[in-house]
TrEMBL record:
Record flagged with keyword Nucleotide-binding: yes
Recorded superkingdom: Bacteria
Species for this entry: Nocardioides bigeumensis
Entry's family note: Belongs to the ABC transporter superfamily.
Protein name: ABC transporter ATP-binding protein
InterPro entries: AAA+_ATPase, ABC_transporter-like_ATP-bd, ABC_transporter-like_CS, ABC_transporter_ATP-binding, P-loop_NTPase
Molecular function per GO: ATP binding
Length: 299
């Protein structure tokens, strides 16, 4: 039995089908990501799995239980960080976390431990309304984790965090997963999903279009490798005549050579003494995402 089992999950708002017969399983201890452009149905899917929203159709089981109608047996075993969190006014960060922890009988020492783990020690006595957006995000994550649930749902957990805070949070989430917890997150950061997730589902228009490990999805894309050489290394005409080069693009960084035979092209560049400053960019999860969902901007 998986930690999460979803079959035929559907939710409509008027004529708009936000989630359209979605199905997947998440194994116990797995780090599972849901990716998609704005309006793809990620958050609605997560909210139905969490028991916050009633499905129109389909089945959901979390840790062997049905989350809807609200299931009191499941609540202590789940941790939920919402995309937009609300806090009690006029409480300090520590008081806020202690209030959440008290609902689950968490000891004060555990509250202090989580304040430290999310990097809010120097803000523990600051009222929540005076916290920055990134600090409120970290407090929200601590509230979802303070009772150490079996399964954690995180909806864009690193939004509004600076790069250093994002990396620190990655280490925290990776440690949670290593300790045996199941983690499910939605994110817009492809590097985040690639670094953390065992498998990812790419959603668009309410459907899951691809589902596999990040590495398998990248392999399946068969994307060309892009090799950037300095502008002074060789004329564009010479680059276009290299064996294995499919196309050449002039950019501000230099010539970008697209190839599916990178070893042969690099050998040719070495023979011409043109390896100084070379950069090699293989296919990434972002390439898979754009190839699957398109490049059109979604507001």
């Amino acid at each position: 039995m998986g930690a999460i089992e979803v079959a035929g999950l559907t939710k409509s708002y008027g004529e708009t089908k936000a989630v359209d017969a979605v199905g997947f399983e998440v194994a116990e201890g797995e780090f599972f990501g849901i990716l998609g452009p704005n309006g793809a149905g990620k958050t609605t899917t997560l909210e139905m799995i969490e028991g916050l929203r009633r499905p129109d159709a389909g089945e959901v089981r979390v840790l062997g239980e049905q989350p809807w109608p609200r299931n009191p047996a499941l609540l202590p075993r789940m941790g939920v960080q919402l995309q937009a969190s609300s806090f009690f006014e006029r409480l300090t960060a520590r008081e806020q976390l202690a209030t959440f922890g008290a609902l689950y009988g968490v000891r004060p020492a555990k509250v202090d431990e989580w304040i430290e783990r999310v990097g809010l020690v120097d803000k523990a006595s600051t009222r929540v309304e005076a916290l920055s957006g990134g600090q409120m995000q970290r407090l929200s994550i601590a509230c979802a984790l303070v009772h150490e649930p079996d399964i954690v749902f995180l909806d864009e957990p690193t939004a509004a965090l600076d790069p250093q805070a994002r990396r620190n949070l990655w280490d925290l989430l990776d440690g949670l997963n290593d300790s045996g917890r199941t983690v499910v997150l939605t994110t817009h950061y492809m590097d985040e999903a690639e670094a953390l997730c065992d498998r990812v589902a790419i959603m668009d228009q309410g459907r899951i279009l691809q589902l596999d490990s990040p590495a398998a999805l990248v392999r399946g894309l068969d994307a060309a490798t892009r090799i950037t050489v300095l502008p002074e290394s060789m004329p564009r005409e010479d680059a276009e005549r290299l064996d294995g080069v499919e196309s050449v693009e002039q950019t501000t960084d230099g010539l970008v050579l697209a190839t599916r035979a990178p070893a042969a092209v690099l050998t040719e560049l070495a023979a011409r003494g043109a390896l100084d400053g070379v950069r090699v960019h293989a296919g990434t999860l972002e390439d898979v995402f754009l190839a699957t969902t398109g490049r059109e901007y979604r507001a």
